[in-house]
Design a protein that fits this description.
The complex is a heterodimer of chains A (399) and B (419). Chain A is α/β, with parallel strands linked by helices. In chain A, 37% of the residues lie in helices and 18% in strands. Chain A has three domains: 19-130 and 234-255, Thiolase/Chalcone synthase (Peroxisomal Thiolase, Chain A, domain 1, 3-Layer(aba) Sandwich), CATH 3.40.47; 146-229, no CATH class; 262-398, 3-Layer(aba) Sandwich (Peroxisomal Thiolase, Chain A, domain 1). Chain A has 14 helices and twelve strands. In chain A, a hairpin with a 5-residue loop joins strand 11 and strand 12. In chain A, helix 7 crosses helix 8 (192-203). Chain B is mainly beta. In chain B, a hairpin with a 6-residue loop joins strand 6 and strand 7 (110-114). The two termini of chain B are 26 Å apart. Classes of the chains: A alpha/beta (399), B mainly beta (419). At the A-B interface, helix 1, helix 5 and helix 6 of A face strand 1, strand 5, strand 6, strand 7 and strand 11 of B.
Chain lengths: 399, 419
């Protein structure tokens, strides 16, 4: 990479170059990882770099997403930097959010043009603490957290609101779960226990209808949600490598990498109080998709949605206006593996995988944060670096 | 902390507690104050009334009016879920519903609990009309609003009353409300994780009275405890990179901590924590020959993936090779007593941070002081306090570091090894 100057080099800054994913890696997903979080990160960072054809020292910006509350250790995110070899000092940032928001920060940095390569990773061992209790602490500390407003209860309130609206039934929720289980069978990134459960359903010769019938016999964990409607506690990590067009094209030429172009990336947030917005819609997801340019290109063929609960997939499908025939969560989605703080970034990696490995032309990845789909990020990926006009969110942001 | 004895990994348990005290501000503080009168307040914001009241309208970001409006007491369930097995954080210890309740007169819904009575979940439905129950003896806290019950339900809970009962004893209803200033919230989180393979080897080694480190074959940095990765090179390491370390070294930095009172603080008097740079080690015999062949890391030709990208690194030699330390090498006092410091090509001493001292007063501790570990008798050692983090805690095996009485080493030699 002798022609590429480092951050301190003298090359010109080019604003708004197209940006591509040139490498990614997803860790094995487990219910309880015996390895430390930094070792999970080291694994995916090493493999994502290898896939990209770039070396560690060729990375000009690094951004990670994780939450110290998950591990219970102060500055766990600093320890995670040990996975990237941050000496001599590197340009680096961290978001206390899903790695998908770290991707957003890195993407903005590359758009600005001072840097041309970036490493993004997200990680979480949600088995370490009591995830329900940890996530209760992200709710409003005055009105919600003192009530022990756990994420499952909040999700169930949203699910009930959706059912009451007449736009979905409990059977629709179970159908989402059944498809996730079926996808888990062949997904390399599903929890093994769920893949096995999916395989026993399929292997038993059950039709999808029969499988849904079986799921509906389960008790509620929080009515109207059953266990299969809820995400499994998962430990895992994910890393992506980004490059601007000159570097990505060179890697394609020299190393045979298939760049996956980020043609839009936006996020919007809604009020936090669950009683102050329409829980049956996702206005922020819709706006993010519009701002990212969902309607500007060809049809989205694959959507990887951070639908943590089965009803969220139905709300998101409607809000995003995904076309008929769009395949949703071929990876199994968060119902098959939900590594909190990496789940959204995994969606981006899975969407990129659909383009790289399955010949898909256009894919959408979605990430979420906060209770009841409070904040939503939409990332559009294309085989071709089109849709550049959708890069900037100025228009969308003003709406 | 505790450890499990099964054949799987040792499980390390930690409980992290934060006793938060939060300011409520004028809006939430007034809402809480009104609960003691059996009243639920909303705040006017444009055309609508927000309940729960907020300082800023979430739709517009505009400051709300400051005009409080009594809402309810009857409200309508807009959505609900059934909690059949409440946890310790929930407001009721018996099965209950969480519900979004739109109080009459409010434009938004409040999340709260509904005690559905003997009928349980069967009594719940969207559209159900509910009324609040308050603590009979209010404490100026958010949970002075205890829960809701279906309208017309009998209250069987002796500690709670309806709003009218409380209003009758709550003094002048027209008197201005003094906002409650703060609330307390005790956060307690318990974490369990597997002791990593590297930490397990370190723990076993400590129990056997030996300090264990790990050397990166690429940059020669020695870590204690072993971590199974090199933070400089970003590569995995393994058991084969472990090495036993001497339990003697030199203080390169220290701090005197004056304890302040907080929950969990056991110290009462100022105490010292030191950084100990361990003496360098003769590598195990089997590895020695090869080790002498190791070129210095900056000039290493074959390090994977790093080739050609190491420019700039030559400006940053590893600490033992600082020109300054080379210059002082010949002037060392007591050098001959040391187990071949600085002579090991391609390795450097290991650092243990935040170590306690023994047999020395706070005032005597200084950089350059030679120290050695004081081990607990083997029968008294334990690895209970060890986890996967830290800068080399030896707690449970080493009580602290005491002066050896040897002459001090020059301070300037350790200027880059302070932490």
């Amino acid at each position: 990479m002798s022609t590429d100057q480092g951050p301190s080099g003298t090359r010109d800054t080019v604003f708004g170059e197209p940006i591509a994913i040139v490498g990614y890696a997803v860790s094995p997903m487990t219910e309880f990882a015996e390895d430390t979080e930094v070792r999970l990160c080291l694994d995916v960072v090493t493999r994502a770099l290898a896939a990209s054809g770039l070396g560690r020292k060729e990375i000009e910006f690094t951004c990670s997403g994780s939450a110290d509350y998950l591990s219970g250790g102060t500055f766990t995110f600093v320890a995670n930097l040990d996975a990237v070899g941050a000496w001599p000092p590197i340009r680096e940032s961290h978001v206390e959010m899903d790695g998908a928001w770290a991707l957003h920060e890195a993407w903005v940095r590359l758009l600005v043009g001072e840097e041309r390569t970036a490493l993004v990773f997200g990680s979480g061992k949600s088995s370490t603490g009591d995830l329900s209790r940890v996530l209760t602490l992200q709710t409003d500390p005055y009105y919600l957290a003192p009530l022990g407003a756990d994420p499952l209860s909040l999700a169930a309130l949203q699910a009930r609101a959706l059912l009451d609206s007449g736009r979905a039934t409990e059977r629709d929720l179970a159908a989402v779960a059944a498809r996730a289980l079926r996808a888990a069978v062949t997904s390399p990134h599903a929890l093994p226990a769920l893949a096995a459960a999916g395989a026993s359903g399929v292997g038993g010769g059950d039709s999808l209808d029969a499988q849904i019938d079986a799921l509906l016999t389960a008790d509620y964990v929080r009515s109207p949600l059953r266990m299969h409607d809820t995400p499994p506690v998962t430990d895992g990590a994910c890393a992506l490598v980004l490059a601007t067009a000159p570097v990505a094209n060179r890697l394609a030429e020299e190393k045979g990498i298939t760049p996956v172009w980020i043609t839009g990336l936006e996020h919007f947030v809604e009020p936090h109080q669950p009683g102050m917005r329409d829980l049956t819609d996702s206005v922020s997801a819709r706006r993010a998709a519009q701002a990212a340019g969902l309607t500007d290109g060809g049809p989205v063929e694959v959507a990887e949605l951070s639908a943590l609960y089965s009803h969220e997939e139905i709300i998101l499908r409607e809000a995003l206006g995904l076309p008929d025939g769009c395949e949703i969560n071929p990876s199994g989605g968060p119902l098959a593996a939900n590594p909190t703080m990496a789940t959204g970034l995994v969606r981006v990696a899975e969407a990129a995988r659909a383009i790289q490995e399955r010949g898909v032309s256009r894919a959408l990845a979605h990430a979420t944060s906060g209770p009841c789909l409070q904040q939503n990020l939409v990332c559009l990926l294309d085989r071709q670096p089109v849709g550049q006009e959708a890069h900037t969110s100025l228009e969308g942001g003003a709406r | 902390m505790s450890s499990g004895a099964r054949s799987g990994p040792r499980i390390v348990t930690n409980t992290v507690e934060f006793p938060y005290r939060r300011s409520l501000g004028p809006v939430i503080g007034t809402f809480v104050a009104a609960l003691a009168r059996g009243q639920i307040l909303g705040v006017r914001s444009g055309e609508r009334v927000l309940c729960p009241p907020l300082e800023y309208d979430p739709d517009t970001g505009a400051a709300t009016s400051g005009e409080f409006v009594a809402v309810g007491p009857v409200g309508t369930v807009r959505s609900w879920t059934w909690v059949s097995e409440p946890n310790a954080r929930h407001p009721l210890d018996r099965p209950f519903a969480f519900a979004l309740i739109q109080l009459d007169g409010a434009g938004t819904s409040l999340l709260h609990a509904v005690d559905a009575g003997g009928e349980g979940e069967g009594a719940m439905r969207t559209g159900l009309r509910v009324v609040p129950r308050f603590r009979a003896e209010p404490k100026g806290r958010t949970d002075d609003l205890a829960y809701f019950v279906p309208e017309g339900a009998e209250t069987t809970d002796p500690g709670v009353v309806d709003g009218a009962t409380l209003a009758a004893v709550g003094g002048e209803p027209r008197a201005p409300l003094e906002p409650v200033e703060t609330m307390e919230f005790w956060s307690s989180l318990t974490y369990k994780e597997a002791l990593s393979a590297a930490s397990e080897r370190y723990a076993r080694s400590l129990l056997a009275g030996r300090l264990l480190g790990q050397r990166c074959p690429t940059c020669a940095k020695v870590y204690v405890p072993p971590r199974d990765f090199c933070a400089i090179d970003g590569i995995p390491l393994n058991e084969g990179d472990d090495l036993a370390l001497p339990d003697r070294g030199v203080i390169t930095n220290f701090t005197i901590v004056t304890p302040v009172k907080y929950p969990g603080q056991k110290e009462t008097e100022p105490f010292v924590r030191v950084s100990v740079l361990l003496d360098e080690v003769d590598a195990p015999v089997g590895q020695r020959a090869g080790e002498n062949d190791l070129p210095s890391p900056a000039r290493r030709p074959g390090s994977e993936g790093a080739e050609g990208q190491r420019t700039g690194e030559n400006d940053l030699p590893s600490p033992v090779r600082q020109p300054g330390s080379e210059g002082t090498e010949g002037q060392r006092t007591g050098e001959n007593d040391l187990p071949s410091p600085v002579r090991q090509p391609g390795s450097e001493g290991a650092m243990m941070g935040l170590q306690p001292v023994v047999d020395v007063s706070n005032e005597e501790v200084r950089v350059g002081m030679r120290v050695e570990a004081v081990w607990l008798p083997e029968a008294e050692r334990n690895a209970d306090e060890l986890g996967n983090r830290g800068w080399g805690s030896a707690s449970g095996a080493i009580t602290g570091w005491r002066p050896t009485g040897e002459p001090d080493l020059p301070v300037e030699r350790y200027i880059d090894r302070v932490f």
